[in-house]
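Sanity check. The docking grid for phosphoric acid mono(formamide)ester depends on where the pocket ends up, so I'm generating a full predicted complex first rather than guessing from homology. Inputs follow.
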Amino acid sequence: MSDLRGRSFLTLMDYSPEEIQLLLDTAADLKRTKQAHIPHATHKGKSIALLFEKTSTRTRCAFEVAAADLGINAVYLGQGETQFGKKESTEDTARVLGRMFDGIEFRGFAHQTVKDLAEFSGVPVWNGLTDEFHPTQVLADFLTIIEHTGKLKGSKLVFVGDGSDNVSNSLMIGAAKMGVHYVIATPDSLQPPAELIEKAKQLAENSGGSINITSDLMAAVDGADVLYTDVWMSMGQEDQMADRIEKLRNYQVNMDVVRATHNPNVKFLHCLPAFHDQNTVIGREVYEKFGLGEMEVTDEVFRSPHSIVFDQSENRLHTIKALMALTL
Ligand code: CP
Ligand code: NVA
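Predicted complex below; grid placement will be based on this.
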């Protein structure tokens, strides 16, 4: 069996298909254990730091609750609450945190930061989202697909929307490793980086998966097992609102798109948070400025039986727990 102890988790690129499968199987085991109310504080005496430059609901809560379940002490270090960045470099911060903590979660902007934390801290570092990647999300997504469709390999997963998105980048790597047919429906101006597409296509050749990118939304979704979307403006892109709405308004997951899959059992996933109504500050702003009451997904699809987004969000807990349990 693979031993993941001491390993960081920066992107899925660093993990073999067998190691990804081990993480998913361990998450499923830990989920059953929790549901059976069986205590599993297997990592008592460990401490971890949760370093956040960007906001979070799911990732932060998953790390905190998973840590508590495993008997780990978690310390949340939010933006502006430490010397990090303003008065102290990433390297020095990493060296200090590595002396006190057994592991570090980082969410922020530059992907280089999470790499530097891993290089200089000497302890496992888990990427809780950067501008480029969101690998812990994909573990939850894959567990959810397996639970609801019975399989992952050979599935057709179609991402609709911002093809340059961090979640999509990580889904592409994960799909390429695990033999999934991954299709991105996105405007030509929002394609993923060419180098990443090339690497993913090479990996897919070994796994039996495939990677396709197209601007033809309705053709892309035909035969899909799973539809996936994410916000049109990721954290840090709020100033690009008008441009992104212009580019992406024809890439909304609505019932026409669901019907175009020709799969009555198609599942809908979204990493969340989602703009499916006007019950948020940004949702209302977009409605007032652009007359759009819903963005990447309609309320109808979001609340439909196709949607398994809250099962998906719960699985953040079980998969992040598996990641910590195996790497600490
Ligand atoms: N999906 C996800 O990462 O959610 P948060 O931004 O709430 O952590
Ligand atoms: N692409 C989104 C994901 C949020 C979980 C963002 O970066 O804001």
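Relevant for the grid: The pocket of norvaline (ligand 2) is lined by residues 129, 165-167, 230-231, 234-235, 271 (CB under 6 Å).
Also worth noting: The chain has a mean pLDDT of 97.
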